[in-house]
Design goal:
- The structure is a single chain.
- By secondary structure, this protein is an alpha/beta fold.
- The protein folds into 2 domains: 222 residues, Alpha-Beta Complex (Spore Coat Polysaccharide Biosynthesis Protein SpsA, Chain A), CATH 3.90.550; 112 residues, Hexapeptide repeat proteins (UDP N-Acetylglucosamine Acyltransferase, domain 1, 3 Solenoid), CATH 2.160.10.10.
- The protein is 19% helix and 29% strand.
- It is built from 7 helices and 32 strands.
- Strands 5-4-1-6-11-8-12 form a 7-stranded mixed beta sheet, sandwiched between helices.
- The structure holds guanosine-5'-diphosphate-alpha-D-mannose and magnesium ion.
- Magnesium ion binds next to loops.
Length: 364
């Protein structure tokens, strides 16, 4: 039985206002929290116990997941009263591990969906004898990520987190946010102070001459850290472009393209498309169009409203005729009749946009 650590303590700043109430890993994709999706995938790969490294809004995780019995896996928690960074969080979570010093421990960033063969990554790690094995993927623009060049044997040469100069962009191969550590290597990380695994631990291992391997796997991969990538991730799960969606048995897939969860009331005259999810308790009135969106619980969408590639927080009210395009609407907000919310706009939790008003991008 393999143990895993899930890093779920970040503030989710780029996903505000959605993360004002819900930590990023608990935001729903295809009708279930990202964390639940990740735990199910890990379990299918042979992980039997997972330690959640929590900090921001830890209560939301414990309330939703408890001891993991509903997911058929053992869930434990390691809480940081002040955030310890990615490396500090891994070290802190290791206090809750049961495995021995030579056993493999899988570590996941809590905002990733992917098609990675996790079991194969673990097997390769064990047979190579590496200190750490990293899942790498290739992207067109690597600047938002950690760059990880390797030699022809897969040995990691250097680690360049969020490069700032053109000269540092030596590869489009990036850290995909899933690692396998030899347990004893985690125990070498300093306990109780902030540590970045990307900026401190990995470069330190390379300096010490430890074998750090990178395995390039170009199956589906997405970091859901921005609103646009978050919505895209959910859409990709609903449409099947991203593998491993667990659609609740009570939900309906409409036209193979959209997901309506149990207890939502969608008018037969409304049009859902493009991988939209309509969550529990929502009401969607006639002639509304919802294309490529995440609509969280208990949202009301009025007659003829049109929503495109947007995320709408729980309990929001979208009045008749409103148009929302590539925007984020916080929980409980009210978008007035015929209001227009433009690309990149973020409407705060509980905010009220008066009837007929146009809102354009205000921040990013
Ligand atoms: N417990 C805990 N404590 N978790 C944390 C902390 C902390 O102090 N800081 C961040 N996390 C968690 C976040 O919740 C998230 O799940 C994960 O660690 C990664 O943090 P992000 O904020 O999403 O990092 P990133 O996307 O900018 O960069 C990371 O991921 C990229 C791949 O998506 C880095 O690992 C990059 O190297 C990598 O390319
Ligand atoms: Mg991220």
């Amino acid at each position: 039985m393999i143990e895993a650590i899930l890093l779920v303590g970040g503030q989710g700043t780029r996903l505000r206002p959605l993360t004002a109430t819900t930590p990023k890993p608990m935001l729903p994709v295809a009708g279930q929290p990202i964390t639940v999706h990740q735990i199910r995938r890990a379990r299918a790969a042979g992980v039997g116990r997972v330690v959640l490294g929590t900090s921001y809004r830890a209560d939301v995780f414990t309330r939703a997941l408890g001891d993991g019995a509903d997911l058929g896996i053992d869930v434990a928690y390691a809480h940081e009263t002040t955030p310890l960074g990615t490396g500090g969080a891994i070290r802190n979570a290791a206090e809750e591990l049961n495995c021995g010093p030579n056993d493999p421990v899988v570590v996941f960033n809590g905002d990733i969906i992917n098609g990675l063969d996790i079991a194969a990554l673990v097997d390769g790690h064990v047979s190579s004898g590496a200190a750490v094995t990293l899942h790498l993927t290739t992207v067109e623009d690597p600047r938002r990520y950690g760059l990880v060049p390797t030699d022809e044997t897969g040995r990691v040469l250097t680690f360049l987190e969020k490069p700032e100069t053109e000269a540092e962009i030596v590869t489009n191969q990036i850290n995909a946010g899933c690692y396998v550590f030899r347990r004893s290597v985690i125990d070498r990380i300093a306990l109780g102070r902030p540590v970045s695994v990307e900026r401190e631990t990995f470069p330190g291992l390379l300096r010490d001459g430890d074998l750090v391997r990178g395995v390039v796997d170009d199956s589906y991969w997405l970091d859901l850290g921005t609103p646009w990538d978050y919505v895209q991730g959910s859409v990709d799960l609903v449409t099947g472009r991203a593998p491993g969606a667990q659609i609740p048995s009570s939900a309906q897939i409409r036209g193979g393209q959209s997901l309506v969860l149990d207890g939502a009331n969608v008018s037969p005259e409304a049009t859902l498309s493009g991988g939209t999810t309509i969550d529990r308790g929502c009401v969607v009135a006639a002639d509304a169009i919802v294309d490529g969106c995440v609509v969280m619980t208990n949202v009301h969408i009025g007659q003829g409203a049109r929503l495109f590639r947007s995320a709408v927080g729980a309990g929001a009210k979208i009045e008749a005729g409103a148009v929302i395009t590539e925007a984020v609407v916080g929980d409980g907000a009210r978008i007035g009749r015929d209001a227009v919310i433009g690309a990149g706009a973020r409407i705060g939790v509980g905010a009220v946009v008066p009837d007929g008003i146009t809102v354009t991008a205000n921040s990013d």
